[in-house]
């Protein structure tokens, strides 16, 4: 399976989708809050928020169907009075396969704009792989990535808005998460500036064994080829998931014993 990451302005996504499809990509992944911008102020975000089946979903679904390529994009989702930092996976036919609301909010910027989601593992079957969604800060929690692995996720799709000076997340943490939970991670970042935030690019696709593809700091259409057999081999050679002893880790959720 070939996948693409659009590390560039959201308004150039249509041409990126066309180029990715021409290269044989089955999926293109974009950044966190790509449809509106992330650091634009809580009032602006609230005004631009829309339901999961809103106009932007219809627009992107039509583009996906036109180019016959699935897409993951980040957007502000309105549900009643609540606004969520969400990511949606649309199929190559333009149909919604999964919608995820960011569960771990990053600092005041997130908390001032969004309500936290409460569903940690959101998945969909995608072209022979079990795909899951997280957003940015979520992937920095090993418990959440491991929950995906235990639920059968093989391809973890992570729109992000990683800013300087946190390049180490893309460079160091993402390959480690893919290795320890033995899945593919597609980490799709931005490379522009919003207010005081400068996004560092460095989008990363990692397997359990290696960094399959990595972008630089600037605009880029990144491609990676994924092989499901790599996951089976990694899990057989180093059976982290099978060798777990959950009874020893109860303090992670239950707290220390008296």
UniProtKB/TrEMBL annotation:
InterPro entries documented for this protein: C-N_Hydrolase (IPR003010), C-N_Hydrolase_sf (IPR036526), RamA-like (IPR044083), UPF0012_CS (IPR001110)
Pfam families: CN_hydrolase (PF00795)
UniProt keyword terms in alphabetical order: Hydrolase
Source taxon at top rank: Bacteria
Annotated organism of origin: Amycolatopsis dendrobii
Family note: Belongs to the carbon-nitrogen hydrolase superfamily. NIT1/NIT2 family.
CN hydrolase domain span: 1-228
Molecular function (Gene Ontology), one example: hydrolase activity
Protein name: Carbon-nitrogen hydrolase family protein
Gene3D superfamilies: Carbon-nitrogen hydrolase
